[in-house]
Specification:
Layout (H helix, E strand, L loop, with lengths): L3 E4 H13 L5 H10 L8 H11 L1 H10 L1 E4 L2 H14 L7 H19 L1
Amino acid sequence: MNKVKVPKEVAEAFAFYEKQLETMPKKTVHFVLMAVPFSIVHGPAEVLKRFASNDPTQYLQAILQGYEARIDIEDELTAMITEWLNEPYYQDNEREDVKMLVNSIIGHLQKQT
């Protein structure tokens, strides 16, 4: 079975609950996650509940088949560049700083493939 691609925040919420429930049998974890859409929830469970409401089939498939984060490269790169622009220069010249930014972007993209 192929893992289901879910938004990054959904993958993080699933991972949070997998960590919290790691001592429970897998079937019990599945039951807990299946109850989330019908429960009053807070925190990461709100993300799961919203996702389940919008796409219940994909939610259940992610529980049963596993999941992986769907990364939005544009959002990731925007965040990286914004962070870089808000930091003071690390090197003595801008050219070296630009090289550092490019290397960090390349490294990030290589992790995604």
